[in-house]
Amino acid sequence: MDIESRSYQNIVKKESWRTVLTLAYQSLGVVYGDLSTSPLYVYKSTFAEDIHHTESNDEIFGVLSFIFWTITLVPLFKYVFIVLRADDNGEGGTFALYSLLCRHARVNSLPSCQLADEQLIEYNGSSSEMTAQSGFAARLKCTLEKHRVLQKVLLVLALIGTCMVIGDGVLTPAISVFSAVSGVELSTAKEHHKYIEVPAACIILIGLFALQHYGTHRVGFLFAPVILLWLMCISAIGVYNIIHWNPHVYQALSPYYMYKFLKKTQSRGWMSLGGILLCITGSEAMFADLGHFSQLSIQIAFTSLVYPSLILAYMGQAAYLSQHHAIASEYNIGFYVSVPEKLRWPVLVIAILAAVVGSQAIITGTFSIIKQCSALGCFPKVKIVHTSSKIHGQIYIPEINWILMILCLAVTIGFRDTRRLGNASGLAVITVMLVTTCLMSLVIVLCWHKNIFFAIAFVVFFGTIESLYFSASLIKFLEGAWVPIALSLCFLAAMCTWHYGTLKRYEFDVQNKVSVNWLLSLGQTLGIKRVRGIGLIHTELVSGVPAIFSHFVTNLPAFHQVLVFLCVKSVPVPHVRPEERFLVGRVGPKQFRMYRCIVRYGYRDVHKDDIEFEGDLVCSIAEFVRSEAETAVVETNGEGERMSVVGTCSTYMQGIEDLDGSDVDEMDKPGPSEILSPKLKKSKVKKKVRFVVPETPKIEKETREELMELTEAREGGVAYIMGNAYMRAKHGSGLVKRLAINVGYEFLRRNTRGPRTALTSPYASTLEVGMIYHV
């Protein structure tokens, strides 16, 4: 069974309690690594500059009260009880919310949308039915669909959240590892530890990024035990400190201490909220990593273990600090001062391991969200390596990995302290949460069909809390908060430029496509010699003949006996079921042997390699030919072509069957109803693929001959014909457009992966046709 079928079955299977508890345990290492390591730096960042720890303990108790209620309201109430319910067929994250809105309000930014895409099972899978909207929801939907400006604003909002997640992928490893390593300051001389922290943190970070290409499946089984050990460690130390130093520290959980804190510290207390904010860093991971686990498993892990462990850890630190006031001037207030002296070295080792696990989780999440952006046409094409053939979602992107490493080392060496790293990380975290709040308000109205007052209450309540933290973080712009803003602007500019150039390229293809009638007028041989083999003409168009084909046939005297106009596109759903993967139709009469095949992927789907893809493509065309008279017509596009849904080989219950080589060798020679063709396995060893055609009077002689010709063409080999377009802005275009197309888009196109990335086509079988697009 391939990874595609396996990953889909993992989604739809019914979970038992044993499965849920197992997923809850595994989620500790993937989801909660970042959130669990926040006690390392929260108090130290909060008391770094704006406020000071005094003997009255008003500050430390006020900070503890803020931490308790922030963790309770944002991760627990907002994410665990509300946001996790807004999944997109089991997937979470910023783009999952955007995908939901795209389908319910039809504000999709993808240009190649079809009516057939809306008939996918998972297109409406997030709700049992698309209920008729009325009142404010209907007016809001109409407004969004009518005004392109609002659609662009919605896309930019989702991209801002995505860019901040990428920025968090730079800052979280830096602050987590640096804070963990900073424990050496209590065991070395003050003038020496600064020469140890930065080099040690850099070495750990380089090793972390250098090992990414091996994947996490080899050491992933250690992630959950490490975080579990860390949570037990900090909770046990917290309980010890509470009992030993201040058993009455629980009184500080009262909101009264927040009022008392702000009344005493005033503006300085408000500015210190940027440090308190770090206690919820990593909360977004609960929603972003929803696709790897389940809603119930994440809820159980947080409410039963993570939440109480964090509260005990913060209470324990506060209890210790409430009885120790002189340490502030010597070490600054940090995590390790509250750890018993005999346990500091073991805790230091566990903390470094936990920081590495937390960093690994955010790096993997960054890879995942960039893959989603690329699939939806909002990020340049990058090489995506699947590091595990068994575990869905474990990917590695080489270019992004090294960019993250360089940026991570730069901020670690440049800042060299927790305070400025905390200011930078806090702004990135709270911006993502604000974006989620805004998108969730639209989901509540448009997708959940709730009253507008529920959406207003959600935005006002959580938006007010997050805006308070956002303002406190933004005021630290010159003290480190500029970093996520600068990173986000760079990534946002690249994303918007690429998306704009992609749309302009598609518009040019549509305006310059060749009509099918022109193609048919060339005759059965297309006016040229037809040679053995299959020609796959890659195009973004879902109808018509691309300009690259007419450009090709006017310059070369021959073409393949079977032509397939191939469109590989993404649809705004996380997964497309294997039985709905292909849309297949004819271009012209049967004797022309020309087909159109549209391959649909969700933004979380795994793209198959060239060998397996070729086999599925040929099998889908063969199945279409066999069942053409019986298959229901899904769509008749603008060119009058009939398109039918055909699944991958593994989904055929009857009709064309794909038998591997071992079965072929054991069976007798093919009879008159069987057709053989060679196919390569992943191991590059030839195997036989048998198209078994049922003995039925419905299979006409003409159909059997077409299948035989398709098989012979497959034996002759497959050639990939792709366009390599050079974009140029038209004469008279504005300065912004010329900069975006001639400079920005062309720079990204030349320095990123080409169209081969979407197909993973072999170099030896790929032919690129160069053209200049004046857009």
From TrEMBL:
Residues 533-774 form the K+ potassium transporter C-terminal domain. One of its GO terms (molecular function) is potassium ion transmembrane transporter activity. Pfam families: K_trans, K_trans_C. One of its GO terms (cellular component) is plasma membrane. The chain crosses the membrane at residues 60-81, 153-175, 195-214, 221-243, 269-288, 300-323, 343-370, 391-415, 427-446, 453-475, 481-501. The keyword Cytoplasm does not apply. It is a multi-pass membrane protein. Keywords: Ion transport, Membrane, Potassium, Potassium transport, Transmembrane, Transmembrane helix, Transport. The keyword Transmembrane applies. It is found in: Cell membrane; Membrane. Residues 23-520 form the K+ potassium transporter integral membrane domain. Its main location: membrane. Potassium transporter. Belongs to the HAK/KUP transporter (TC 2.A.72.3) family. This is Potassium transporter. It comes from Brassica oleracea (Wild cabbage).
